Structure formats: C-alpha cells, structure tokens
C-alpha cells in the first residue's frame, strides 16, 4: 500500500490525535479535572492501539479504535453541553472533578489576557494567605476554549472513524484475496515433501 492511501492517512490522523490528547491531558491535570483526565488516558491508549493495528495490519485493533472514536465523539458532545450549560448542566459545578473538589478548568484563570485579582484575608491578622476575588480581562472566556478543544476532538474522531472503517475493509479484502490465491495450490507442502523423500529414496539405491 502506497503512502497516499487511507492507511497512511489514518496513521497521520492517529498521530495528530495523540498530540492533541496529550496537550489536553496536560491542561486537565493542571485544572484537576479528574473525569477528563481518565477519559484522556483511555483515548491515548486506544489511539496507540489503533496506530499499532494500522502499522501492523491488525484489523481488530483498528475496529476497536473505530468503536472508541464513536464513544469519544459522544463524550466531547457532553463536554460541549456541559460548558455551554445545556439543560440542567452548569459549568460551575464540580461534576468533572467527581465532586471531590471545586476546581474549574485551568483556562478559567490562565486564559489569554486573563488577570487574577486577589485581596488579603480580613479578620485573620498575621496570615499571608489571600482570598481569590475575580478574573478580569480575558480575551476569550474559558468555556469557549474548552468547547473549541472538544470541537477539534470531534472533527478528528469523525475523520478517524471514517478512515478506520475504510482501512478495515481494505485489510479484510487483502486477507480474502490472499486466501483465494493460496487455494489454487492445495497441499503444496505435501508435494514438496513427497518429491524430496522420493529423491532421497532413489539416491539410496544408486550403485557405488
């Protein structure tokens, strides 16, 4: 298969997806977003399996990658709904941290142009701790950054799903074609062994 085939395109897509997943994992770690951290970890593992299956012509791994791509699209659609507060969802809830903390997205305080304003804790003299007040001046609100991340993930996953289905069909056709060609010569090993044993038998009775 040449380098301009669907197989090479899928390899490129898996590589881009792996980079995007690692980038997202870093920022989710910084924001203590435990549910996305777990989901990103599974995404990285499945991408590596899909990449291995594509390189080594293993259709089962590619099929597993395609199935996960559909699940990954669903997860990112949920994230978009979460940050856009669709229905009863609220971006200020601690749902993504498994209710163990009240951390929000890392981008909520470190987005482009964001400035954190803090003030000393009142009524507690002698302490150097500060109380968080607000974040101002953000060029882009953090929920839109998260939505953009999810939209990119959805686009890459949809392309990966399409090419994974195509590559799987190509692998299957090649396996069927190989079996069909091999069927024209039944028991080739038997004929070779039979011929070799006949020659050895003939040589053993040659006059010295």
How would you characterize this protein structure?
- The chain has helices spanning 6-30, 34-55, 59-83, 107-110, 142-182, 188-204; strands spanning 115-120, 130-136.
- The protein has a two-stranded antiparallel sheet.
- It contains six helices and two strands, in the order ααααββαα.
- The chain is elongated and about 75 Å long.
- It is mostly helical and 208 residues long.
Q: What is the overall shape?
A: elongated
Structural class: mainly alpha
Average predicted local confidence, pLDDT: 82
What order do the helices and strands follow?
HHHHEEHH
Report on the biggest sheet: 2 strands, antiparallel
Give the neighbour order of strands across the main sheet: 1-2
Unreliable stretches (pLDDT < 50, length at least 5) are: 180-192
Instruction: Bin the strand percentage.
Output: 5-15%
Percentage of helical residues? 55-70%
The N- and C-terminal alpha carbons lie at a distance of 55 Å
Q: What is the tally of helical segments?
A: 6
How many strands appear in the DSSP assignment? 2
| CA radius of gyration | 29 Å
